[in-house]
Amino acid sequence: MTSSRPTRAMTVLMAAAALCAATATTATAAVPASPAAQDAGRRTPKIVADWARAWNGSDPRALGALFTADGVYVDRAVGATFRGRKEISGWKARADRLIDNVHVTVRTTRRDGDRITVDAVYSGRLKGAPKPFAVPMTTVLDLDGSRCRIASDEDHYSLAAVLAQSGLPADWTPPAAP
Question: How does pLDDT run across 157-167, given as a tens digit for each residue?
Fold first, then answer.
């Protein structure tokens, strides 16, 4: 004759399954969904806030001052490299002459030792362009040993997207510097 009551073995198995399900749910809840979720509660590193403030400001020397004396700035989109505070300040001055309301908005940062990866939006209006642009940008900042100054900066964004959003042809080139 079979009984409608569960056997002791079945009761133990059901309890074990329930315990495993509860443990799996708790463990899953403790794991962040993504690296961005890990950074959501963190403050922007001071050097990144200073870097964005310098880009958004009107004094080109403020950007150069954030770098080591032999710092390197690479703009991958336009294929330009600048070495030293004077050249880096000159790059910011040229950007200010070429782009109205040049602006960097930091979205997230990720730090790994002396390296900070910045996800941002780069925006402004190229002088003479019919429309403004706002494109995603990733910047990789390598800091000096004391983490007080930027040793190198690499900006990655799409020049094609900047030109397309600006309403300019893909072969547009900026006017010669005065």
Answer: 999 999 999 99
Instruction: State the pTM of this model.
Output: 0.75
- Distance between the two ends of the chain, CA-based, in angstroms? 101
β partners of residue 73:
82, 153
**Residue 82 bridge partners (DSSP):** 73
Q: Which two tokens stand for residue 5?
A: 């009551």
Q: Please report how many Cα atoms fall inside a 13 Å half-sphere around the Cα of residue 135, on the Cβ side.
A: 22
DSSP H helices in 40-156: 46-56, 60-64, 84-98
The residues near 68 (Cβ < 8 Å, ≥ 6 apart) are 144, 149, 150, 151
Contact 105, 52 (CB under 8 A): yes
CB atoms within 10 A of CB 117: 18
User: CA–CA distance from 48 to each of 32, 110, 121 (Å)?
Assistant: 24, 11, 14
Give strand pairing partners of 121.
105, 136
